Amino acid sequence: MEIGTDGAVLTFDAIDKRHGETWFRIGYREADFGGRVEVSSFMVGTPALLFRQLASFDSPWTGTYDWSDFEGRAKLVAGCDAMGHVTILVTLADPVRAMRLEAPLMVEFGQLSAIARQAETLFS
User: What is the rounded CA–CA span in Å between residue 25 and residue 12?
Assistant: First the structure.
């Protein structure tokens, strides 16, 4: 699954389901910049929960909504302005190598329902 605009792309790749957990990769790339991490749904569920919540709004919202994996390797924080511009702040971290990627991804409010459906399909 890919979400992206203006050359920036957020990717989700399902890897495996075992012991009630879903293992997947989250990646971000933009021109010469990017990274990805492998995470699981252990204790927190998948990012489909966040996208379902965002798609449930009838109009742009105030505040932020987020999802992160249990080990802190991936975090998504979504905010929206009054015009319906949604910013998803993507944070990917590799604590073993002390590396961290943090970048914004822009989508439109009207895209959220399709994104939520794609996420539900990927993670079901």
Answer: 6
Q: Is 58 left (phi over 0), alpha (psi -120 to 50) or beta?
A: alpha
pTM of the model: 0.93
Give the CATH superfamily of 2-123.
Answer: Transcriptional Coactivator Pc4; Chain A (2.30.31.10)
Distance from C-alpha of 20 to C-alpha of 97, rounded to nearest angstrom: 28
Q: In this predicted model, what pLDDT tens digit does every residue of 84-123 receive, in sequence order?
A: 999 999 999 988 888 999 999 999 999 999 999 999 999 9
CA distance readout (Å), 33 to 11, 94, 95, 99: 14, 16, 19, 13
Domain boundaries, the chain: 2-123
